[in-house]
Amino acid sequence: MRHLAIGGMAALLALSAAPVALAASPQLAVTLKPAPVTGAAGEGIVPFVDVTVEIPSLAVAAGAPLLRLPLVTNNVQSVAETLTDLTASDSDGPVTLTAKDDADTPTRAYRHWTAARPVQGTLTVRYRAPITTQANPRGAAPPLELRTDGGGFSGAAGTFLILPESQTAYGLTVRWDLSAAGPGAAGVSNFGVGDAASTEALDVEQLGATYFMGGAIHRYPEAAPTGTLIKGFFSAWQGTPPFDGKALMQWTEGLYHHYLVYFKDPGARPYAVFLRPNLVNAGGGVELNGAFIGTFDQKTDVKDFKFTLAHEMVHTFVQSLDTAAEDASQGLDSSWFSEGIAVYYQNRLPLRAGMVTPEEFLADLNSTAARYYTNALNGTPNRDIPARFWADTRIRVLPYDRGALYFALVDEEVRKASHGKRSLDDLILAMLDRRRHGRPMDHAAWVEIITRELGPRGKVELDAMLDGALVLPGEDAFGPCFTRTTTPLRRYQLGFEPEVLIQPKRVVRGLVPGSAAAAAGLRDGDEIVRPVPQDMIQGDQHATLTLQVRRDGQVLPITYLPRGETVQAYQWVRRPEAPAKCG
């Protein structure tokens, strides 16, 4: 895995609450009217989108919680502080709104609105949401912000859509007003192309995980129907990727159908893939409510990107462990399961389907293994990950890398214990069967299943992994085609305090004497003026890091190889006598 697909924020965003009957739920309607493109279509920007939200069946007292929009969600700034022309009205006329903000946190902070008088019936909220062309000022984050490129725009509802502050589940109707967007413009959401609606009622968190893309965009299939919910695979992308977008989406559609068979899924729901350019950590992405948002830049390697797509599609089928609604970590403490299983299957399932070569499989596996076994913080207990997730890339990748190798170890042990009759696949399908029959698919369920399969050692090994013990699958863990070896690799070393990179003003402190950063001329007190992508380069032994720093009123680039000591790291190689077909 070359790029960190914050993927799932499955723990954060791919919500798994039981569906609510649509017919019994009020219908919330959203209308999006993008501005005319500035510059040539396909090259210009969409500067803003006018938003109308109609919220029915309200009965809210004066001063009571009424509306909300995150100020920050998963380290992404919303439009809460930059939106304009905000108005609201109900059946009694205009409603005056008063805003109050939560304290800033990287994970989630809200702007709340209350009304000076009681609000009754349908509340209509209108405003203008500006669309950015700038990199996320907070640094590493999933591609959720409202962004414009190539004559199109996209964003997650949670970063620009004002929603009711309520526990009510709503049906969602999406309407597009493309009258100003120019000829050929289209609008797409999780629910389909053009005006569309959800088939299930969604709570406010699920509403916020809806994704939208509109304007001068590309689509596959090009003839996808409009106005109705699409069942199965569809995709859209904005900008101009350095690869054949249609060919990549055809490959992804083929893998999607393979997943349907493997996960025993009827495929009745839509599965959408949205692609867009990204200025930081291109090549990764995030899964949101049955859709994947992938990112690219002009250096994105399509072979690597296929594994990102394969990873995120696993999230759609497996999702995350059930967690308590009041879970302060927002599921990050269970991301070892959701991210680990996605990394484990992102290369295993395409290999089985004959959609990647054994060499490509090995390259992806070894990228994960190299990053884990050279990670100076790979002994960090799982319980410490939520608090440090955004502050340090070495912590951020642990659920992915350690989780994947843990599942490889489990697969190896289940195969040996059953004399080849069972595998990890049987355990994952048993977990999914619990959810499909309304039973909890949570940490306790996994403990029950792994203990039943492997006896007491199943829980002992799980607890050891969560406590930070090194995970080491055996020589034959990945089948008869491959075997384990070691190779000297260097640890990732940023060279200064990592938390600097998520602060509003990035002032270097804690410079490590003798580090590559210090040797390149970086100093304590230098101000880093641009976001710094680390997740993409952490697993690449040869990737350099360039910082744009301000010193004495001047901005200068400082480039270095962010590597420290050399250690022996485990890798896997193909056996000379391996059969031609591996999987």
TrEMBL record:
Any GO molecular function: metallopeptidase activity
BP GO terms, sorted: proteolysis
Range of residues in the leader sequence: 1-23
All copies of domain Peptidase M61 catalytic, residue ranges: 308-375
Pfam families per record: Peptidase_M61
Lineage top rank: taxon: Bacteria
InterPro entries for this protein: PDZ_sf (IPR036034), Peptidase_M4/M1_CTD_sf (IPR027268), Peptidase_M61_catalytic (IPR007963)
Keywords (A to Z) from UniProt: Hydrolase, Metalloprotease, Protease, Signal
Gene3D superfamilies: 2.30.42.10, Neutral Protease Domain 2
The protein's name: Putative metalloprotease with PDZ domain
